Amino acid sequence: MKKKVLVTRKLLRSNEERASKLWDAKLNLNDEVYSQQKIIELSQGCDGILSSLTEKIDEKVINSLPPSVKIISNFAVGFGNIDHQAAKKRNIIVTNTPDVLTDATAEIAMLLILGACRRAKEGMEFARKENWKWSADFLIGKQLTGSRLGILGMGRIGRALAKIAKSFGMEIHYRNRSRLSPEIENGAKFHESIKSLFSVSDVLSICCPATKETKNIVNKETLEYFPTGAIITNVARGDMIEDEAMVEALANRKIYAIGLDVYKGEPKINSGYLNQSTAFILPHLGSATKKTRTAMADLAISNIDEFFNTGKCKNTIN
Ligand code: DGY
Fold it and tell me: What is the pTM of this model?
C-alpha cells in the first residue's frame, strides 16, 4: 500500500506529479494557507508531512499529530517554523533543503545590496513620472566598488554572496560561529565579535540562520556599532532585526538605506518600512526561480522517499 503524505502548500506541477506517483499525496490544490488545527486534522492517517515556511509547526501541533506521522520534510532550507526538538521527542524526523537554493538566494542578496545602495525604489518611482529631470546630483547613491561588505553567517549563501560581491570590487568581512579555512575564506576577513564586524560594515548582509543567539541581533545598541550611513540588508529571516530600532535608525539617517526580503511575522511588514523611500523591500523572493523552486520541492520529496525506503535521511536536522 502506498504511504500517505500531507503536502501543505501547492507545488509546481512536475513536483506534484512526482509526489502523486510515489505516494497517496494529499495535495493542496487551492493553495490555502492551513491553520494549525487544519494541519492536525489533515494529517490524520498520514505517514509524513511535506511542509512549507508558512506553517508554524510548534510543540502544540507536534504533540497533536497522529503517531503515524514519522517525518516532516520542510520545503525550505530554513526551519525556524518547526519545533524540531519537540519533533525529536516524538521520534519525528525533520528535514530541510540545503544547497539547491544557494545561488538563487545569493542573487537576491546582491539585488538587495544594489537596490538599497543605488536607490532603486526611488528611481523606479521617478521613472514612472513624466516630470523627472536628469541632473548631476539626481538620486546619487552609494557605489559598491571599494566598500566593505560585512557578511553575518558565512554558510553556503554567505559564501556565494561573497564571491559575487568580490566581483563588484567589495572588500569582504565576515562573522561566523567558527572561522573558515583559508581556502574557503578566500581573502575574507574574519571578525571575532559582532561589534568588530558591524563597525567595518559599510554594507551588511544578514545570511545566518534564525536561532536564539541571532534573534534581534541588529538592535538599538548594536546599530550604534555601524559607521554612520551604513546599509543593512537581510536575506535570511526577519527575526534577526529589531524593527522599531531599525525604523528609527533610518529616520535619523544613522542607517542610509535597507534592503529586506524577509520579515518578522510574514506576510506582515512593519509599517515603518512601507513608506520609507530608503527601504528597498521584496516579498520573500530569495529562492523564487523555477529552477530553484523545482529543485527544492524535488529534494523535499526525495528526503521523504529516502526516509520511507531506508529509515533515515541525510538532510535530517534533528
Ligand atoms: C528558505 O528555504 O529558507 C527560503 O527562505 C525559502 O525561500
Answer: 0.95
